[in-house]
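S.,

Sequence below, as promised.
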Amino acid sequence: MASTHSNLDPAQTDLKALKGVIPLIGLTGGIGSGKSAVSDLLGALGAGIIDTDLISHEVTAPGGKAIPIITKAFGAEFIDSQGALNRSKMRALVFTDSKARQILEKITHPLIQEETAKKAFELAKSEVPYLVFVVPLLIESGSWVNLIDYLVVVDCLEETQIQRVMHRNNMTHSEVENILNAQTSRDARLAVANAVIENQGSLDDLKPKVLNLHQQILRIQ
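The prediction came back faster than expected:
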């Protein structure tokens, strides 16, 4: 792809404007698969990383743009003592109430999209070789599938995912299973992947796989 990074309008908010300017890589995988580990390694190799899950946490952190709107829509009981979204309480609600989930998404998604675009254009202007959008529910979102040039899926056994999330987030086995059941299936992700990074082992096992992926992506240009 020809580089015209310097001509990008920093006020632009439509990610489609980046098509053909810089390779747009989608990185996804089920909860606990290791998306952050892969994106961290790609970032260390020079890629521009935009993690939508981190952005989601930013807009729902103390002082985040979503907090006043969430408080108005759901009540102060969904905000913790630090002023952040009470994620466990909200998770319990939206997994059982689809209307509540839709309301939350209507609040957070536009804010996440706005910040995602801002970060993407800033990174593209900085002349990184490619952009990686880390999106947990990328497959579920038709808009992302149509935007990206190359889809990377981080994969491991479902039981490995469960054990990792139980340890990391102090959740029960059934709580993690509920999250997995709400996401698209492992087979569905693998069926549409351009590249699969198997992350069943250690970080040392992962590093050469990510280096190889990085070299593959550089050839897209």
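The chain has a mean pLDDT of 90.

Coffee later?
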